[in-house]
Amino acid sequence: MVASIHKADKFIAPGLGVLALIVYLATLSVGAYPGAPAFYAVQSLGLMPRMTPDHPLWTGLAWLIGKGGVQALNTLSAVCAALGVSLLYDVTRRAITACFRRPEESDSAEWAARIAAIGAALALAFCTPYWYVATRSHPMAFHVCLFLLAVHFFFRFVENVSLRTAVIFAFIYGLGMAEYATFIAFCPLFGIGLLFILWRREALSGGRAAVLVAALVAGLMLYLVATLAFYKTPGYEFRQYSGFFQVLLFM
Known about the structure:
By secondary structure, the chain is mainly alpha-helical. The protein has a domain at 1-139. Helices cover 77% and strands 0% of the residues. The chain contains 13 helices and no strands. The protein has helices at residues 2-26, 36-44, 56-65, 70-98, 106-125, 128-134, 140-160, 163-179, 182-200, 206-220, 222-230, 234-239, 244-250. Helix 1 (2-26) packs antiparallel against helix 4 (70-98). The longest helix is centred in the middle third of the chain and has 29 residues, at 70-98. The protein is flat, with a radius of gyration of 20 Å.
């Protein structure tokens, strides 16, 4: 029973993502939608200079595919949003399953986790704000996907208490903090949770904590990369920044 359920996970998560992607592509915005999507599109296509150094990862992806025009940016949002749907299923399933510890409840916990995870993924996929950013040139779909990717590795760490998994989580989270401010707000929660799990499993040590901090700092180096990329650009000159460190402080 349990083995077959685990095999089903390999199809449910991608299936939800593919379903969402089909819907997003079918309802994809044609051209640059007025408002924020148009603003991000013209900056990514080089039609106007970037005014701020924020969202460096999304900006880099948009620059790579920018030659495909606005529709390529819209499609990038659709793909990121569909991945986010798959990841939310995985995160919800892992989170609920982790709450059930007694062996006699394992089967019911697996089924409850899957039903809840499917509901959560579908609710995210077709709620209006998410559908909006999934079909337009907007960085939010990428940010949600990145956040859920970090949470995915956090719950994998909860399951196996692997230092390697924890390092991957810390590095991705560091990147996320430099990419989108919401990561900063949740950082204390995940940091305390990570240390508590290590302590609870009697795996906490100064060396492991130092490795995790180093991985986080490595991800945070994206701040420096983004600042260097923005320094002395037309947007930098237009905003009249006084120097490199003022841009870094802004980020």
